[in-house]
C-alpha cells in the first residue's frame, strides 16, 4: 500500500536576547546577576525544548563589549550544541563579537534551513542607543529576499521597527524602520520580523506578517510605560515553530524558578 504523505516536521527555533553579560562573572544590572539569570533561562529552555534546530541571539549579548563576556556567552549557549547565529545590539562591540566568533558561523548573516531563510541584520550604530540599517545592511536584505526563491523568510534585527506603546523607548528604536517595512511589504515570502532591545514580549500581526519581540534573559522593561520603568517579571526566551508551508507558531516562556530581586539604589541600567 502507498504510504501517506506526511508534511515535513517544522523547524524548532529558540531566540535568546539581551543577556547583557559582563567580563566580571559578578556583574549586575539593578542588582541582578546577568550570568545567573541567563543560566536559569538556558536551563528552562533545556527542560522545555528537547529539539532545537537553530538558536538565534538578537543582540546585547554583552553589556561591556568585552572578549571575556562574549566568550562566556558562547560557552554558556554551547550547551545546546545546535547551529547558532548572533547579531549585535547597541551595547555590543561588533568587532569584538566577530573576533570571538572567528572560525565559526555565529555571525553568518543569511542562513537557509529547511524551507526557510533566516536573515540577521546589524542595526547597531556605533556609540548610539538607537538603531539604523546602513545602506550595506539594506543591500544585504534586498539580495537575501530577491534570491530566496520559494523559501519563507524570517528577518531579525536588534532594534524595534514598530511603535510598541512605550514613549521612552520610541526614540531608541530603528530610525529608518520605513526602509525595512517597505521591503517586508514588497516581498510576500517574509513571514515574520523578530527583534530584541525592548526587554518585553511583543506579538503583532500586520498584513499577514508577524512582528515579534522577546523578553530579556535578565531585567525586564515595563510595558506601556511613559518613562523608563522596569518590571519584576522573570527573564525568558521565545520559541518558534517554522512550518514548511510558511505558517509560524510561537510563544514566550519564562524562567519560573528564578527569583527576581532588583536593587533600585544600584547604578542604573
Question: Could you explain how this protein is built, in words?
Answer:
The protein has five helices and 15 strands. It has 269 residues and is α/β, with parallel strands linked by helices. The protein has one domain: Purple Acid Phosphatase, chain A, domain 2, CATH 3.60.21. The protein has a six-stranded mixed beta sheet with strand order 6-7-8-9-11-10, with helices on one face. A five-stranded mixed beta sheet has the order 5-4-1-14-15, covered by helices on one side. It has a two-stranded antiparallel sheet with strand order 2-3. A hairpin with a 2-residue loop joins strand 6 and strand 7. Helix 2 crosses helix 3. The longest helix has 15 residues. It is globular, with a radius of gyration of 18 Å. The mean pLDDT is 95. This is 3',5'-cyclic adenosine monophosphate phosphodiesterase CpdA. Its EC number is 3.1.4.53. It holds the Pfam family Metallophos. One of its GO terms (molecular function) is metal ion binding.
Overview features:
alpha/beta, five-stranded mixed sheet, 269 residues, metal-binding, 25% strand, Purple Acid Phosphatase, chain A, domain 2
